[in-house]
């Protein structure tokens, strides 16, 4: 008898892995293909890093930074420490608004005034010129005004270098009973009088319309500086440790606390 159809060996079933439909591969544009960067020789440029720590800074920058750290670390006597406490922002803003009204004349204004005066004299006219009310500057001039009792308010910059130039001014102002204040900074004072810097300014007089505002400023300055002079002379500054030293100090205090508790506590 001939063999029946389908009576042969059974065929193994198709594996489950082969049954899964294979996702069609998308055609990728070679121009827009994403390639991983290689930073080896001849490859991509490495990303830019901040090089501040590797820059050799100029000597004056290094000295500024070292001085700032030293001032924080060392103990600062009260006479120097008082220059770290300047007039508050709101009071300083009001004070400088008033000062800008009494700026001395610059070179161009002076030249114009002298030309007008010369032209009037040439024509035989006489011009009555009153002494202008303006801010006085110059360390020697300000000192003279304080000693004569003519200064009504003295402004001292907090960042004068060397500080010995103005360190005695607060004591002199207090002795002569002249209101004084310490403001930030010498460049801001210099801008009032058309200079790069100014160590100290003095106000000798103000106009009638500004007397009310000026008296308010003087009162706030007196309470902040003149009345607190004795207290400021008792407070030393500086003595701030660095971050590493602070951690060491904390660790040392913890060890001391454990020793003081005794064993088993």
What does this structure look like?
By secondary structure, the protein is of the alpha+beta class. Helix content is about 45%, strand content about 5%. The protein contains eleven helices and six strands. It has a four-stranded mixed beta sheet with strand order 2-5-3-4. It has a two-stranded antiparallel ribbon with strand order 1-6. α4 packs across α9. The radius of gyration is 39 Å and the shape is extended.
Major sheet: arrangement of strands: 2-5-3-4
What do the pLDDT scores average to? Answer: 86
Percentage of helical residues? 40-55%
State the assembly state of the protein chains: single chain
Unreliable runs: none
Number of strands: 6
Structural class: alpha+beta
* Rg, Cα atoms, Å: 39 Å
Order of helices and strands: HHEHHHEHEHEHEHHEH
Our measurement of the CA-to-CA distance between the termini, rounded to an integer number of angstroms, reads 102 Å
Individual helix count? 11
Strand proportion: 5-15%
Tell me about the largest β-sheet: 4 strands, mixed
| Overall 3D shape | extended
